Amino acid sequence: MAASAARSSYMRGLRDGLPFLAVILPFGMLFGVVATEAGLSIFEALAFSIVVIAGAAQFTALQLLNDAAPLAVVIASALAVNLRMAMYSASMTPHLGALPMWKRALVAYFLVDQTYALSQMEFEAKPLSLTEKLGYFLGTVTPICLPWYGATVVGAWAGAAIPPETGIDFAVPLAFLAMIGGMLRTTAHRWAAAAAAVVAVGFAWLPWNLGLIVGGVAGMVVGAQVELWTERREAAKVVKEEADA
Amino acid sequence: MIDRTMLWIVIVALGIGSFGLRFVFLGLVGDRPLPPWLLRHLRYTAVAVLPALVAPLVLWPRATEGETDPVRIASACVTLAVAFVTRNVIAAMASGAGVLALGMLMLG
What we know:
Chain A: It is found in: Cell membrane. Chain A: This is Branched-chain amino acid transporter AzlC. The complex is a heterodimer of chains A (245) and B (108). Chain A has 245 residues and is mainly alpha-helical. Chain A contains 13 helices and no strands. Chain A is 80% helix and 0% strand. In chain A, helix 4 packs antiparallel against helix 5, helix 5 runs parallel beside helix 13 and helix 12 (187-202) runs antiparallel to helix 13 (210-244). Chain B has a domain at 49-107. The longest helix of chain B has 26 residues, at 4-29. At the A-B interface, helix 2, helix 3, helix 4, helix 5 and helix 6 of A face helix 1, helix 2, helix 3, helix 4 and helix 5 of B.
């Protein structure tokens, strides 16, 4: 009974995750291509995807390595891009925190944007048992995380055949812009992005790519502040409306 | 050419760091709530770091040795606009790549 419920949750997760293949495959291949253009071997590109398993952070690290940025800046910037994963970890804890340690470690490794988003929605919407929740999560992992490795290899293999004059250098900025466009959901997000871009350009003269760090920190602070102001304004409006009523 | 030692240090450090970020609450902290100010800043890390990284690359592309290129700027604007309106990353990248290819063909 429990096993079949877990299996049906797994299948549901798998089905919900399938549409994301349309994003995972091209992005994984793009990473393979860009890694090859940067001089990485197929094995190195694949190791990158298996060990790090985070698209945006992988592109960030590769770009900065290519620009010969200092080691600390490469690592700090790529990890900053991944800081949101800590938030995912926090919000999965009430649902999956009761699992044995090795299963929690397994979930943590596969906790990426898409598996998190799907699981969070499912767990909020339905009262599921612990095994069913794990089943659903692993279902989403199957079409989202596993093809990432294969796509990297295909891209790395194909990348060797793409000459640099095709403008492939600009693929990474375009990939980032496409991701940023989807993140600009609220006023605070838009201000954070704008502030970060302007400050990073203004401080681009700093050595060791430190303009990136300064811009990133500025964007975070601006985003957090705008969110705070928006909340206070909304709260004030509610109080005023209640007073008027 | 990327230095091999550096590459592997980055891969291993990012692997440990990314896993650590994903594991920290699930594995170690339990379901104690986080301070709101921390969550508020965490929310804006990706949307801040990525534009900070990309803006200089758009203004001063490496392929042109840092010379500002109107075709690349147009391509970047189109990508961002399409992504913002459609929320479709693949459509956005394809549009931007189309502008870039067309621009390079006509001006290059």
